[in-house]
Specification:
This protein has ten helices and seven strands. It is of the alpha+beta class and about 280 residues long.
């Protein structure tokens, strides 16, 4: 796993963000805003949620950008974990009351444009503070927003029977640039909880056709990059789109495995569930 993000991967991340924003907005424009995208969110709510992230990310890279109108937000963010991020989303949506699709779409497009502009002359490994005290590199910030667009695009499309693909090259950025990025630069309290600390080292390698392998080690409750010479306990060969949908609870683990889109191998694969209880995302 490279210790820095190449200029080429940085370019890919920004291009992916521009393209997936266009795709997502085209999908939402063709969908009734009152249709339910999830059990709790309408299409308009989903658009507002994605827009809140883009707004927040512009604030991270441009201090002059108007802040989100949420009292005390900056005091809440350091305590957020993957298990409480849903509560934060609820707070944001209660304060961001706009649900008119054209207004929300225009704001999202403008904020993504501003984010890309602000990132244009900065290095991909420059970091910004994120939820739970994590430090996220700018390349990871863009990759995270790409993933949000892909996951929530999946929600909107599934609810309305419209086609929606989660392309592997863009989905792979989430593991390569965001998840690996927060492990490299510090994840703070973001993944507190999960599996109890153990003296047993567990090494898991994630491999896809679209990015360099990511080899991680869980030891004593801490997630780090594994030494390249370390023996792998479990290996996950995957289609990035399916893996991301699985990690965010949109596809079951059984379905992901049975379709062959996620394949587990290695000398001690039974250690993988414990690893994934720690290395997890909101689902």
């Amino acid at each position: 796993m490279a210790t820095t993000v190449s200029d080429e991967r940085w370019r890919v991340a920004r291009t992916a963000l521009a393209e997936q924003t266009d795709r997502f907005l085209d999908l939402v424009r063709a969908t009734p805003p009152e249709a339910m995208a999830t059990a709790d969110w309408s299409v308009a709510d989903t658009l507002a949620h994605v827009g809140s992230l883009a707004w927040y990310y512009v604030c991270l890279v441009d201090p002059e950008h108007p802040p989100l109108p949420v009292p005390g937000l900056h005091r809440q963010l350091p305590d957020v974990t993957v298990d409480t991020v849903a509560d934060l989303n609820d707070v944001l949506l209660r304060h961001l009351t706009e649900r008119e699709p054209a207004a929300l779409a225009g704001q999202l497009r403008a904020d993504v444009g501003q984010l890309l502009l602000a990132c244009g002359d900065r290095r991909p490994d420059d970091t910004v503070p994120w939820l739970g005290g994590a430090r996220v590199p700018l390349a990871g910030l863009c990759a995270h927003l790409v993933n949000e667009l892909l996951i929530h695009g999946h929600d909107v499309a599934r609810a309305t029977g419209r086609p929606w693909s989660v392309p592997g090259p863009h989905a792979a950025l989430f593991m390569e640039l965001f998840l690996a990025g927060v492990v490299r630069h510090g994840y703070g309290r973001l993944i507190d909880g999960g599996a109890p600390p153990s003296e047993r080292r567990v090494v898991v390698e994630f491999r896809s056709a679209y990015a360099a392998p990511v080899r991680l080690m869980l030891h004593r409750g801490r997630m780090t990059f594994a030494d390249p010479r370390a023996r792998v306990d479990a290996r996950i060969d995957h289609d990035p789109g399916t893996l991301n949908l699985m990690m965010f609870g949109r596809v079951s683990r059984a379905r992901a495995v049975l379709t062959g889109k996620v394949r587990v191998s290695g000398r001690r694969p039974w250690l993988l569930p414990g690893f994934l209880r720690k290395f997890r995302t909101p689902s």
